[in-house]
C-alpha cells in the first residue's frame, strides 16, 4: 500500500481510498458486493475461507496483469510485480491446502 501511495503521489493521482475503512470502495465495479459475498462465504468454514483465498488471488492476478499491460513505467511495473508474485505464491498455497485429503 505504501509503494502504491508513493506512485500515486509521484504521478499526481488522487488516492481513491483516502478516508475509507476496510470494506469501503470508491469504484462502482462491484467490489463492495464481491467483498460482502466473500466475507460471508469465508466465514462459513476453513475450507470456504481457503476457496475465497483462491478467488481473491485469481482476481488479483488478473487485475495486476491487466494493469501491467497498460503501463510502460518501470517503477510502476516493479511495484506491481511484487504483489503479483505474492499472489501466485498465495494461490499455490491455497490450492495445495485444498487438494489435501
Q: Overview of this structure, please?
A:
The relative contact order is 0.11. It is built from four helices and no strands. Helix 2 (31-42) runs antiparallel to helix 3 and helix 3 packs antiparallel against helix 4 (74-99). It is globular and about 50 Å long. The chain is mostly helical. It has a single domain (21-99), classed as Up-down Bundle (Ferritin), CATH 1.20.1260.10. The longest helix has 26 residues, at 74-99.
Write the layout of secondary structure elements.
Elements: H1 2-10, H2 31-42, H3 46-69, H4 74-99
Q: What is the rounded Rg? A: 15 Å
Q: What are the secondary-structure elements, in order, as H or E?
A: HHHH
Low-pLDDT stretches are none
CATH fold label: Ferritin
Overall form = globular
Question: What is the level-2 CATH architecture name?
Answer: Up-down Bundle
Strands, total number:
0
